[in-house]
Amino acid sequence: MQVDAHHHLWRYTPAEFDWIDDGMAAIRRDFLPDDLRPALTAAGIAATVCVQARQSLEETDWLLEQARANRFIAGVVGWVPLAAPTVSRDLERLTGNGLLKAVRHVVQGEPAGFLRDPAFNRGVALLEKCGLAYDILIYAWQIKEAVEFVDAHPRLTFVLDHIAKPNIRGGELSPWREDIRRLAQRPNVCCKLSGMVTEADFAAWTPDTLRPYFDVVLEAFGPRRLLFGSDWPVCLAACDYAAWADIVRDFIRDLTVAEQQGVMGGNAVRIYKLVQDKSRT
Question: For 140-150, how does the pLDDT look when each residue is reduced to its tens digit (9 = 90+)?
């Protein structure tokens, strides 16, 4: 089964999606399951993991509703107020139907030192007991702090989003390359091949622009810890859905068949504990 391990759904409002600037004007609209379904079919993707875009329990509940109503959504990475006193109760309620697979906070928007917050880390420590993973959304400059964060939770599964957003537009490899290698030394950290085109020049990037960054994460994490993700609809600012899927398939063509199958779906099934429930429509 081929799996897109990272996409979004939303009902667009300017206030809640103020990060969508003029350069991404094309995605200033609603994106719902019926919008995604044709792209999945065209790209040969059978199942997905839907990821939070707003930091609210209301959105997490809505994404879980979408997963219940649409069989192709095999799991959700939601947002939970991890530092709040209510976190245990929130997790108990949200994990009841088995569709919540991980939790994410938009750490890329937080100040330095956020990942050291004791209350936040107490909430993160509960995820392992709930059978959940944690998605790490950071910029490259935050990797060193993320290493400390991961080391504080050695038994929790972490999934790094968007290869930690290196400055592809500026052609910078260091110090991202050295820092990502250090993070990858932690065997409980995996990495999504996602979000790369929107860290490049939207109009001028080519697969060759991205290749050095792919080579770094492949060498650092190995094929068993890499997951294909589209970052749809954000990717549409720079790349068509099917085109991105084909680029990733081309990047991994020299791997064994089993390794390619892992990157394009098997790893996501294993890491997020995905099960396609055929009783859902």
Answer: 999 999 999 99
Q: What 3-state class would DSSP assign to 267?
A: helix
Token match 């809640």: residue? 16
Look at the chain and report how many structural domains it folds into: 1
Please indicate, yes or no, if residue 247 is contained in any of the structural domains.
yes
Residue 82 domain-assigned? Answer: yes
In a domain, 149, yes or no: yes
User: pTM for the full model?
Assistant: 0.96
Q: What CATH number does the domain containing 196 carry?
A: 3.20.20.140
What does DSSP assign to residue 223? G
Whole-Å CA distances, 215 to 164, 193, 210, 247? 14, 11, 9, 13
Token digits of residue 128: 């392992």
What residue numbers bound the domain in which 242 lies? 3-272
* Exposure of 36 in the CB half-sphere (CA atoms within 13 A): 28
pLDDT digits (tens, 9 = 90+) for 84-95: 999 999 999 999
